[in-house]
Amino acid sequence: MNTQQTELIVKMNLSAWESQNKRFSELIEKLSDAQLLSETAPGRNTGVYLLGHIAAVNDDMLRLLGLRDKFFPEYTDIFIKSPDKSGKTFPSVAELKAAYNTVTNELNKHFNAFTTEQWLSKHTAVSEEDFAKEPMRNKLNVMISRTIHLANHMGQLAYLKN
Amino acid sequence: MNTQQTELIVKMNLSAWESQNKRFSELIEKLSDAQLLSETAPGRNTGVYLLGHIAAVNDDMLRLLGLRDKFFPEYTDIFIKSPDKSGKTFPSVAELKAAYNTVTNELNKHFNAFTTEQWLSKHTAVSEEDFAKEPMRNKLNVMISRTIHLANHMGQLAYLKN
Are B116 and A5 in contact (CB < 8 Å)? Predict the structure, then answer.
């Protein structure tokens, strides 16, 4: 019963992650390149920056969860460490969409195979010692916080729709 | 061990809910009334509408989770069934902030006392029959989806900051 409960809750969280990514994927496919190159509100982040930012954050999860090296390590500087309009050259919209799909499909492949024990094991940015005291610093919690982070930016990206 | 795992994951989800609500609460306190009365982007929802919307949605959770009747049933029509700029009269910013605090404190009082069994029990909008087939339609999942919904609007409300 408790094992079933645990698996049910993990599944609920995974479902929320998948649902937000599906909505994101549908939105970026629906928006034109011209829309994505616009600011989401006057003086705020452009769609293309947010697209690169989400691709970079998802790519970084592969590293943080100990799954593999980043596919696009150069994105970290452009889309995480730097704000929009930093003067750095962005990849094209098509490249960023493809990158988002690559990293997210790779994450989902692993997520769908994770056992509960794997979900609740530590991520790579916490020491064994700290993890023993703070068991919430696990892989599942990374996914939960990244789902919320994605939803936060989705609300902004939605402003590019007519 | 499995009971501990289940409790840990519930705690992680509750922590995400509390964290988003804390950020929301801090943001609405930081924004001036003039800022809240502005549009979050040209032609988009005003801050005061989003504040009322979140207060109404949290109030509705009390009903959906079977905890009590809504404190502000009149908000449903103004802030959930109607879009912004519907011509309906809004309560003042001060009233909406107080309403948000009332409903959210009431929710949190219950959430902090819920057992795992209560979290995983059905919400009031699903029949016993459907719930037997779809056990994900439980109270915890309502909180997870409302956390994501709140994050979505928080991204928009953040555009009111200077």
Answer: yes
- Report residue B83 CA to chain centroid gap: 17
Q: Give residue-wise pLDDT tens across range B31-72.
A: 999 999 999 999 999 999 999 999 999 999 999 999 999 999
Give the residue from B123, B128, B113, B127 showing the smallest Cα distance to B146. Answer: B123
Contact between chains at B120 and A2 (C-beta distance less than 8 A): no
Could you tell me the domains of chain A? 34-160 (1.20.120.450)
Question: Taking a C-beta distance cutoff of 8 angstroms, is the pair B159, B44 a contact?
Answer: no
- Within 10 angstroms of residue B107's Cβ, the number of other Cβ atoms is 20
- Does the pTM of the predicted model rise above 0.90? yes
Contact call for B151 and A156, based on CB within 8 A: no
Which ipTM did the prediction report?
0.96
CA distance linking residue B79 with residue B48, whole number of Å? 10
CB of B78 within 8 A of CB of B52? yes
Q: CA-based Rg of chain B, rounded to a whole angstrom?
A: 17
